[in-house]
DNA sequence: TAGGATACTATAAAAAATGTTAGTATGTCT
DNA sequence: AGACATACTAACATTTTTTATAGTATCCTA
C-alpha cells in the first residue's frame, strides 16, 4: 500500500527523528499538502467526500483519497459508509483528531501574525 | 535561489491554500524534514552550526544549511557571524520564532498521546 | 608540513510527493 | 436509452524534497 522505500536513508531519518521527538512524529502525520486543510474543515463537524472536494477546489480526487486514507490510517478521522445509490461516505474527526483543533487554531493565529512580520 | 517552478500546479495550490488558511501557511513554513527539530533545539537558546549538527546526527550539511537558510528567510531564526578562525556562527530563534515554542510543545504532547492510541 | 576545526557550497542522483487522465459500479432522472 | 451523481482506483508523468559526495578558505597545532 505505501510506496515508501523502507531501506532508504530518508525513511531511517524520519523514524529516528520521530522516535526521539514526538513533535516531529506529529508533524510527519500532519504533513502533506492537504492534511491540515482537511482537518480544519472537519473541525466543524462531519463532511461527505464530495463536500470536502467542494471545499478544496483544486484538489484532485486522487490526492483527496490519499490524504483521507492516510488520516484514517492514523486514526485522526473516521469513515462511515451509508449504502445506497448514490453511495454516501462521511468523514469525521476522531477523539484524538479533535484534540488537534486547538493546535490548528494556534497555528492559524501564529500564521496571521507571521504574515505581518514578513511585510 | 529557489528551485521551485512557479508555473506548476503544485505551486499554485500551495499559494491558494496558504492565502485562505493561515494554518496551512504556517505548516508550509514549518514543513521540511528537519525544521521543527531545529526549532526544538533552539527553543533552549542559541546554538552554533556545529552544535546543531551534533544534535541532529544524521543530517547532511547540505540539508542543515538549506533548512537554516529557509528558517532565516522566514525570519524564524537569526544568524550572527563572529569573525575569526575558525569562524563562529550562532543561530537563535527570533521573537516570532519563540512564539512557536508553545505550539511545538502542544504538538509534542499530542504526539505522545497519539502514539498510545496507535498501539 | 600535514592535518584538523569551522561553516559552508556545488553537482548530481535517488526518493517522495503531487498532478493528469482515464476508468469503475449502480441506480435515479429525463 | 443516455446523461448524471457519488466515491472512489489505476497507470503514468511531473515536480519537489532529500541524500551522497566532494570541495572551498583560513588559521592553529602537532
From TrEMBL, chains A, B:
InterPro entries, alphabetized: HTH_HxlR (IPR002577), WH-like_DNA-bd_sf (IPR036388), WH_DNA-bd_sf (IPR036390)
Gene3D superfamilies attached to this UniProt entry: Winged helix-like DNA-binding domain superfamily/Winged helix DNA-binding domain (1.10.10.10)
GO molecular function: DNA binding
Superkingdom of this protein's organism: Bacteria
Domain HTH hxlR-type: 21-119
Pfam family, one: HxlR
Classification via PANTHER family: TRANSCRIPTIONAL REGULATOR, TRANSCRIPTIONAL REGULATOR, MARR FAMILY
Protein's UniProt name: Transcriptional regulator
Species of the source: Mucilaginibacter conchicola
